[in-house]
Amino acid sequence: MATVIPLRPNPPEDITSVRDGPTSAHKTMRDTLGATFKSGRTLDIAYRKTELIQLAYLFKDNEARFNEAFKADFGRHELETAALEINSIIDECVTAWKNVDKWAKSKKIPFASTFRAMKFSIRRTIELNIHPQPKGVGLVIGPFNYPVRSSIGPMIGAIAAGCPCVARMSELTPNISDLLAELWPTYMDQAYTQVVNGRTTEIAALLDLQWDHIVFTGSREDGKIVAQAAAKYLTPTTLELGGQCPVFIDTDTDLKIATRRILWAKAINAGQSHTAPNHVFVLADQQDKLLDAFRRTYSEFYPGGAEQSQSISHIVADSHFEHVKRLFDEVEDEDVVCGGETDASRRFFAPTIVRNVGLGHPLMKTEILGPILPIVPVRDYQEALDYTNSGDSPLALHVYVKNAELKKRSQYHLRAHKHVHTRDLTY
Q1: Which of 3, 154, 387, 395, CA to CA, is 20 to 30 A from 211?
Q2: How many whole angstroms separate alpha carbon 19 and alpha carbon 33?
Q3: CATH number attached to the domain at 26-241
Q4: Residue 269: how many other CB atoms lie within 10 Å
Q5: Beta bridge partners of 129
Q6: pTM of whole model > 0.85?
Q7: Distance CA 186, CA 182 (A)
Q8: 128 near 108, Cβ under 8 Å?
Q9: With DSSP H G I counted as helix, E B as strand and the rest as coil, what are the percentages for the chain, rounded to 5?
Q10: What is the pLDDT of residue 15?
Q11: 285/3 Cα distance (integer angstroms)
Q12: Mean pLDDT for the chain?
């Protein structure tokens, strides 16, 4: 059921517009947001709610235009855009609108027993309360793969918390970024929030300024650069960094369910998701059985072949396409189980399953961030656990096992930001 957005309020009368272009006036923009914060204007909950609903309507009113922009930048089908980006943003805006009054209220907390003696010694009632206060001015540096969800999404929390904020949009999605820059002054108070478009060099210019919190989504290498810049001002950061998200298959796995969910999670957004399955671990003597299940699922998903499908997103940029293609060129032809079709002119890369991938293969040395799915045969479950623990912690583990002991081992002996088990979606 579609989310019902509350009635749109009248836009603020004193909207401040700062449109100096993506490569200039960063300090002016930061000063404008800082002045808004210092004025105390964002303490007004009604003001925050106005901006939240305005943001929801920005996407609701212009859904067709966003579909066109995502089609131009990603080749995305409109249903995928709605599911991955637009609907979730509208839902988050409405959820924040409904709850911000409660979130902003002071909360009384119990008097700690360690301070009880002090309470009686001063012979009067003491109350302890938590008063939520806006933190300051925030910076969001968004990724290319989910330009709305991962760039505008964090701004919703900032708006609800009374924190002025700027989002730097990716240069790899020019149609989406330009559309947001065009619509933003019409819907949003630019003294409160702004979006900035520009080249990669714009990140350095923004990081030279002092912020009260920085949110970054992207690679680990870029995350280190952000963290180093933030350390200059002791700015707290929230870093969502990429990694290799493994899938674990066991002898008792329901392969029909598993292959449907794994293939969907790998194909969505052309595999350009930091939580997408990066590779699949399977016991060596179970690999053929798993591959047969993948073949059946692939035929079910793409009965006319992946090249004929109108629902497959494309790689975002030529350089990213070349990265995925270089990895694919390391695969022997006989090990391509499904897919493998490419069209560089459209940056099209079919969802591709490859077998017999060793732990030292180039596909295992990096986050693929594309639609190639390596099947990695292992001696036993422990070999897969040891390999996973030897690298950086992944954003997600996809565990398709029913055995309670194996589930427990994966849950308590693997480091990851989230664990996804058999009955859950792998995204």
Answers
A1: 395
A2: 13
A3: 3.40.605.10
A4: 25
A5: 108
A6: yes
A7: 8
A8: yes
A9: 45, 15, 40
A10: 29
A11: 48
A12: 89
H-only helix segments in 232-275: 255-267
Residues of the chain with CATH 3.40.605.10: 26-241
User: What is the distance between the alpha carbons of residues 195 and 155, in angstroms, rounded to a whole number?
Assistant: 10
What token pair was written down for 242? 């990429």
Nearest to 181 by CA among 19, 42, 302: 19
Residue 238: strand pairing partners: 215
Q: Measure the CA–CA gap between 179 and 112, rounded to whole angstroms.
A: 52
Tokens 């693929």, located at residue: 368
Residue-wise DSSP of 167-186:
EEPPTT-HHHHHHHHHHHHH
The rounded distance, in Å, linking the Cα atoms of 189 and 44 is 14
Q: Which long-range contacts (CB under 8 A, 24 or more apart) does 12-19 make?
A: 12/47, 12/50, 12/189, 14/191, 15/185, 15/189, 15/190, 15/191, 16/189, 16/190, 16/191, 17/185, 17/190, 18/190, 18/194, 19/185, 19/190
Tokens of 289: 């059985």
Q: CA-to-CA distance for 164 and 185, rounded, in angstroms?
A: 15
Which residues does residue 217 pair with via DSSP β-bridges, in sequence order?
240
Q: Give the pLDDT confidence of 96-128 residue by residue, as tens digits.
A: 999 999 999 999 887 666 655 555 555 556 678
